TrEMBL record:
It comes from Streptomyces subrutilus. InterPro entries: Beta-mannosidase_GH2, FA58C, Galactose-bd-like_sf, GH, Glyco_hydro_2_cat. Residues 1-24 form the signal peptide. This is F5/8 type C domain-containing protein. The keyword Hydrolase applies. Residues 435-572 form the F5/8 type C domain. Pfam families: F5_F8_type_C (PF00754), Glyco_hydro_2_C (PF02836). The keyword Signal applies. GO terms for molecular function: beta-mannosidase activity. PROSITE patterns: FA58C_3. Gene3D superfamilies: 3.40.1350.20, Galactose-binding domain-like, Glycosidases. One of its GO terms (biological process) is glycoprotein catabolic process. Keywords: Glycosidase, Hydrolase, Signal.
Amino acid sequence: MRSLVTAALLAGSVTVLPTAPAHAAGSVVKVTGSQGDWRLTVDGSPYLVKGVTWGPSPADAGRLLPDVRSLGANTIRTWGTDASSRRLFDAASANGIKVVAGFWLQPGGGPGSGGCADYVTDTAYKNTMLAEFSRWVEAYRDHPAVLMWNVGNESVLGLQNCYSGTELENQRNAYTGFVNDVAKAIHRIDADHPVTSTDAWVGAWAYYKRNSPDLDLYAVNSYKEACGIKQAWQQGGYTKPYIVTETGPVGEWEVPNDANGVPLEPGDQAKADGYTGAWNCVKGHQGVALGATVFHYGTEYDFGGHWFNLTPAGERRTMYYAVKRAYGGNTAGDNLPPTVSVPSVPDAGAVPAGKEIVVSARATDPENDQVAYEVLWGGKYVDGGGGLVSAPMVDLGNGSFRVTAPAKTGVWKLYVKAKDGRGNVGVEQRSVRVVPPPVAGTDVARGRPTTASTFQNDGYGGCPCTPALATDGNTATRWASAWADAQWLQVDLGSVKQLRHAQLVWEGAYGKAYALKVSDDGRNWRTAYATATGDGGIDDYDINASGRYVRLDLTQRGTGHGYSLFHFGVYS
């Protein structure tokens, strides 16, 4: 009986019925050798994994895999296997590429990722996944593109996002025990392809060593610490070889913060050196490390894509050519990308919102190709969005450009791209702190007693977010209301003041309709300004009013959240 689906779904626990091992019609892949002298073989020939992780759609595989092959790569790694994989596998086989075929388990992707399965008690989830994985192993076991099966991605580490203490240990042991159940099931269906499991740090291997004896090899994603894997393997007393399933330059989570308090992203050359160094360390653990798939062959054009992708938007970067040299691809006749200097921005720690600034980032091209520039803004550290927006610019010559700063305050990423017209791009970036435009006069609300209808006090989003944080003069702190209309925020100026200007700096949750009112006694109110078309960002407007008390009557939210205000300034 070849199918495990019915047996798994009907079982009261994770149960796999024995079946006769099937022999693949495609390649026969084996882990052979002994302690410290292992090798991976494909149809009896030694095979060193020289790969990339795969990001594009399977529909693009036929078009892009010849380029992967030109890198000298022989392998791609995926995170999921389903019906769409056939198109990818077919294109891989046609281009002489093997696939480390992944299966996704909760909470895949490390800390902060979604899904919190209970591997101790949730038999239904485990049986469903076992049945699903078995289904696709049966579907593709004879496909010549399959190199091995990879069960899960970073879940041992990621479980710390779901559990703590003794329960975390119980879950990690149960998870790796379940991985072993999956490995057994795969081996019963497919005797000719190894099974591994990826995690995000070598500390996870202790759990696999204890609970997953049926894995043929281990796998790890490692960036900054890639060259420490060998020592960790030796100190851990492990008795299985491994592959590195993600590696490259240091990640966002591994770097110090810059002067604006956000992760200091390395430049193009430093990233290229990261790939070279990681690959050299993998090769240096001979007889144990069986290769790597570097991160990432993707075309995404966002924040993460520009940090890691070899080919964002299909444009080849310096890192692409570093991987090509590492893998022994044919570099004869290559046209290389431009090199861009780190952008220079005057007063990058305090750029007024909406102000025109001059950005300088000169590019040079190895072949003296004509270079075209593009400037982009990224709001990852402002609103969490990963997208990049091309900024209209005036080219001032000599690598200088006039651009307009974003209208929203916070720390933005500024990217300068230089394209050579031959499919290559150089990218450099820096952070820029955008602050409210200066206002002449005195902010008479600053530090004064401030009250509100409600404030958020639940620990969400860095709260408690008390009313006083809107008038403390610090645009990194905020008042946040309950998630309901209507609300109010009020400041006592201490005495009647003549007022001529107001400035509101909103967080993402802004007021669409509100009125600014003044009062001499805190009971009788006069409207100084009102709008029903607020759009967030910074509201900066003149008023002509006087009063001791100034109040925002907020009647319509611009989002489904509450009102959230970094700054409530009133100027005399």
